[in-house]
Amino acid sequence: MDRLTLRVPPDLIRRFDAAAASKGGRSRLLRRLMEEAAKAPFPEPLQAPSGRLEAKLGLRLTFADLAVLEREAASRGQSRTQWAVALIRARIHGRPQLNRDEAMTFVEVQRELRRIGVNINQIARAVNTAVMEGAVLDLEVAQLAAYSTEIRAHLVGVRDAFEGNLAYWAPGS
User: What one-character DSSP code corresponds to residue 58?
Assistant: First the structure.
């Protein structure tokens, strides 16, 4: 919505406020006067273009609420705007909202899982292409079992981290 700003003398605004009080307030009366002056209804609102929107949201908070917000944001290494946006997105989308450190941790987990996957592929290729003696084959199978256990542990850790993140952003947390 567009904004109109103007400066008026204090006595005029007091008189206008008195007149607007019985007509729904300043904004409502100004809109009605502008519509009458234009002799036309307001046009339909423009449809927002699809894709990424950049919109601004202003909030008024008590000093106590602002202090809590700043403390929460600082504890996650975020600005208060980043924290508020993450809170809103978590509630709207129901997905984890990661700060920079958390995102870097997940990148590391992905690298580790890729490394393990490459090792498993190498073992599988070796098992498929070579005739191995019993002891060598047993070692390869044991290594596969160890990788399987390691992957499960990483996946449990990832799940726990996501659940913890979602719990942090949940109402009443």
Answer: -
Q: Contact 61/84 with Cβ under 8 angstroms? A: no
136-142: which pairs have CB atoms within 8 A and are 24 or more residues apart?
Answer: none
Instruction: Give alpha helix (H) positions in the chain.
Output: 10-21, 26-38, 63-75, 80-93, 100-129, 134-169
pLDDT in tens, 73-97: 999 888 999 899 999 988 888 888 8
**Amino acid present at 162:** F
* Torsion over CA: 52, 55, 60, 62 (sign): positive
Residue matched to tokens 């993450």: 86
> What SS3 class is residue 42?
coil
Cα angle 161, 167, 173; round to 5: 140
Structure tokens at 150: 């390691």
Identity at 132, one-letter amino acid code: M
